[in-house]
Amino acid sequence: MREETYYSVRMRASRNAPHEQGGKHISGGERLITYGGLQEAVDGLLHKGFSHSRGIPDFMQIQLESVNEPIETIRPLPVAFHQTDTPEKGQAIARKLLQKAGIPPHMIEKAYENIAEYADARGAVLFDIRAGKRIDGRGNRGVRVSRVDWPSHDFQKWAFTHNMPENSRIKEAHAIAAKVCAYPGIIAELCWSDDPDYITGYVAAKKLGYQRIAKMKNAGDESGCRIFFTDGSIDTESCIHFFGEAACIHSAGGEMMKQSMIEKSKQHLWLPFTQMKDYDEDPLIIESGNGIMLKDISGKEYYDGFSSVWLNVHGHRKKEMDEAIQKQLEKIAHSTLLGMTNVPATELAEMLTGITPEKLTRVFYSDSGAEAMEIALKMAFQYWKNIGRPEKQTFISMQNGYHGDTIGAVSVGSIELFHHVYGPLMFESYKAPIPYVYRSESGAPVQCRDECLHALEQLLAKHHEEIAALTIESMVQGASGMIVMPEGFLAGVRKLCTAYDVLMIVDEVATGFGRTGKMFACEHENVQPDLMAAGKGITGGYLPIAVTFATEAIYEAFYDDYDKMKTFFHGHSYTGNQLGCAAAIENLRLFESERIVERVAEKSKTAAEFLHDLKQLPHVGDVRQLGFMCGIELVQDKGTKQPYPPEKRMGYKVSLKMRELGMLTRPLGDVIAFLPPLASTTDQLQAMISIMKEAIAEVTGRGF
Q1: Domain limits of the chain?
Q2: Which of 221, 277, 655, 663 gives the lowest tally of CB atoms within 10 Å of its CB?
Q3: CATH of 360-587, one of 3.30.930.10, 3.40.640.10, 3.60.15.10, 3.10.580.10
Q4: What is the pLDDT of residues 556-566, one digit of tens each?
């Protein structure tokens, strides 16, 4: 594509003949530019060629060449300025700087002895300080530094920051110097121009940066010099090739933006579920994404190993999703759903009720999974009141359950790590045991399942008259550590809720929309909920939409004359937002056309084979998986299942190592959560699991 291709545009101007044929060299220049900037670049080079103090050229060549190799980014050198009033003083400073860079004084003098000879070269010379001689072997041609540029907008930012003039000569010289110094084995560069009107020169070195010297020669002097001092370790041809052919873009703005952005994030942001002291020690800012990859502001890429918190389906920048949102934006971005509907919200509701369990016929929109659960709780509470049974006001939730971070959702949750602070704000709920097979006394799925169902039945038998509903995550408890329920447990819960006249609220926020290999996880056991919350994957990971599904019986309990006060008084400003609904519609179309659910079911089998390798690691206690929901539990002792002391934060340390290796995820205590985008290929799954394996092996192998 034109906008992605860089071109080298070179200009050479001379008088009486091309300078290769003995003509007088007037001027030269080069730009690395994309297609859109070609005209401006050519105009600038033409102006440069015809406005040089060395005269008016009668021969000029402008050469255009596409750059097909990767473009390297190089950073500016630190800058210092030395004010001098005579060439002698300037040259004395240059000698001192070269010595400071690590060149022995006698080698500096040896180079200076040959400056008159070197000045005849059209390019630079390579001087070996070990051998004490020129080594490029290129005669009058010398060594050319080309294919380097410094975009004007970036240079302007740099110049302003460093209080430097926006001088084109400074830009060009500094860009070339930075490229030269970037090559291993180059110790320093000594340079002043052959332009009779330009008397400033410089010494550049990795150690010293760009040292600008005000006066290196007298005005009117057309002699110039450029020497690249090398330590003798370089391969000459490779070095010359790098200078002439490797494409480099000079950039200060990226680094400045990076540091500025990091500082802004530290000063102003408060991130969710994040100890900000941890963040300040290891800041990360994402700039872009493509497919299943994320890129930070430094340009480093990472696998999105947790689907940007469990919700990405098709990858980032999915063309069809982008276009659907843009198309809707051309019509309207948002109008309220209070007392009216809109086209996308209506169409989406029809599509959703076509794919959910058949008894769920009504759709109530919200903005997040926590709110969807909050709505389900309020609906269940008001439902019993509306039908004349107001005594049913309490709830049952599962131990270690998590349903969101709003007060109602927290009240029916039970994760001590998240919820202990907010006890005084929460309403009481009954807690029923969940079958955590790995940590159960028996370690047997069937026995563990039956024991938990028995305990639940005892609780229901005693309190069902006051219980409005039971809340449960569908098939997998996510935030508590990817705890996969044994076969038959969810169906058993459904059976007990029906028997004791208690509504069943199923939380499909994390598990819905293909994540487990079914459109909704409750389909694994043909469970029909009374209320169901869904979110995350509903828009493919693009926009915040969530849904609470209800049966027709529950809906009818609210359907009456206004004065009966059975209206469900709930709703937020952006409920049923058109852009979100448009994204969800396209997402569901892609689910069908690309067979997402079927492919997840197929690929999850292959993922299970890759994950099996992790079980062999000495500190992996358990590997749990349903579809693309996976948890790897780390333990101090595999034989006894002894966990690591919490203060060791092994899960957090492993996640940092994975980040270093090129994959992002978040730990759940000492359980590594792996929830890749549903579009991940088999090769990508293998690559991500390999990173996990390497990170776990290295971090847990260190001991403590």
Answers
A1: 2-68, 73-254, 360-587
A2: 277
A3: 3.40.640.10
A4: 999 999 999 99
| Nearest in space to 183 (alpha carbons), one of 250, 243, 123 | 243
Contact 66, 6 (CB under 8 A): yes
Q: What DSSP state is assigned to residue 124?
A: B
Buried-exposed string 576-595: b where 16+ CB fall within 10 A, e elsewhere: bbbbbbbbbbbbbebbeeee
DSSP state of 524: G
Does the pLDDT of residue 415 top 70, yes or no?
A: yes
Pairing label, strands 286-290, 483-484: unpaired
pLDDT tens digits for range 367-412: 999 999 999 999 999 999 999 999 999 999 999 999 999 999 999 9
What is the pTM assigned to this prediction?
Answer: 0.69
Q: How far apart are CA 502 and CA 490, in angstroms?
A: 15
Question: Which pLDDT band holds residue 1 (cuts at 50, 70, 90)?
Answer: very low
What DSSP character marks residue 234? S
Q: What is the mean pLDDT of residues 425-431?
A: 94
pLDDT of residue 256: 53
- For 603-687, strand residue ranges (E) read 620-626, 629-634, 663-664, 667-668, 671-674
CA–CA distance, 485 with 9 (Å, rounded to integer): 64
The residue type at 531: L
Number of Cβ atoms within 10 Å of the Cβ of 114: 15
Q: How far apart are CA 208 and CA 373, in angstroms?
A: 61
Q: What is the 3-state secondary structure (H, E, C) of 247-302?
A: CEEECCHHHHHHHHHHHHHHHHCCCCCCCHHHHHHCCCCEEEEEECEEEECCCCEE
Q: Please give, one letter per residue, the 3-state secondary structure of 409-475.
A: HHHCCCCHHHHHHHHHHCCCCEEECCCCHHHCCCCCHHHHHHHHHHHHHHHHHHHCCCEEEEEEECC
d(CA 38, CA 248): 17
